[in-house]
Design goal:
It is a single chain. The chain contains 6 helices and no strands. The protein is mostly helical. α4 runs parallel beside α6 and α5 packs antiparallel against α6.
């Protein structure tokens, strides 16, 4: 049942209706009822002012904290890297010495020597904090670390000489 809708409008004029006289007023009234009523905007001026002040205060405090942090000099950064390397080596050598050593008196004796070196190292470190750019203090700090490392290496060599493993004297029976 196919029909062209245009033909319907040409033939019959029944579709044309006269609008009532108050149609325009009714339409505007209905349109006004369906529109969403806008609520007046609340004023947040006080909240905006408080947020602005909070932002300003926090940025000032952040800026002051960033300025007050002590900046490390290039020498201090290099010294920390050297110190870290030496301390790692000292700890590694000391732990290997403790594994090899069987004489507790010898271990105790060298522990005391290392403790004395650690105390000297602490004193030098305190002085270095007071005078961070003093080259003599840096050299004495590095020398202390070198002495401690050398002491432990000598201990390990001494232990290895005392406990030689002679593979030629060992025989394996199967």
């Amino acid at each position: 049942m196919e029909r062209d809708i245009r033909d319907l409008f040409k033939v019959k004029n029944d579709f044309k209706k006269d609008l009532p006289k108050n149609h325009r007023e009714d339409f505007i009234k209905k349109l006004g009822e369906h529109q969403t009523k806008k609520e007046p905007k609340k004023s947040y001026k006080l909240l905006k002012i408080a947020a602005s002040l909070l932002l300003i205060i926090s940025s000032v405090l952040l800026y002051k904290n960033s300025i007050s942090l002590p900046q490390k000099s290039v020498i201090e950064l290099q010294m920390q890297a050297i110190e870290k390397d030496y301390l790692n080596s000292i700890n590694k050598e000391w732990n290997s010495f403790k594994e090899i050593a069987t004489d507790t008196i010898l271990v105790h004796k060298y522990e005391e020597k290392l403790e004395k070196s650690k105390l000297e190292y602490g004193k030098i470190t305190k002085q270095l904090k007071n005078f961070p750019n003093d080259i003599n203090l840096l050299e004495s700090l590095i020398t202390n670390l070198q002495r401690r490392l050398q002491l432990i290496k000598e201990i390990n060599e001494h232990i290895k000489e005392l406990n030689p493993k002679n593979a030629s004297n060992e025989t394996i029976y199967i």
